[in-house]
Design a protein that fits this description.
By secondary structure, the protein is mainly alpha-helical. Helix content is about 80%, strand content about 0%.
Length: about 60
């Protein structure tokens, strides 16, 4: 293999890893939001010093 081929393979591998990390992060954020909503519904979870997420989404 030449230098160019190895470099291309390495770059593609890095891009592939970034894509996997991005999609897994989105999945985790969704799971955390669902978990927080369940805790709020149960009355266990309370946010101190942090504005309500729903209010922040509306403001943006």
């Amino acid at each position: 293999m030449s230098e160019i081929t190895l470099l291309i393979i390495l770059i593609l591998f890095i891009v592939f890893l970034i894509g996997i990390i991005h999609f897994y992060d989105r999945h985790l954020v969704k799971e955390i939001d669902l978990y927080e909503k369940r805790l709020v519904k149960k009355g266990i979870f309370k946010r101190h010093f942090i504005k309500d997420k729903e209010k922040q989404k509306i403001d943006q």
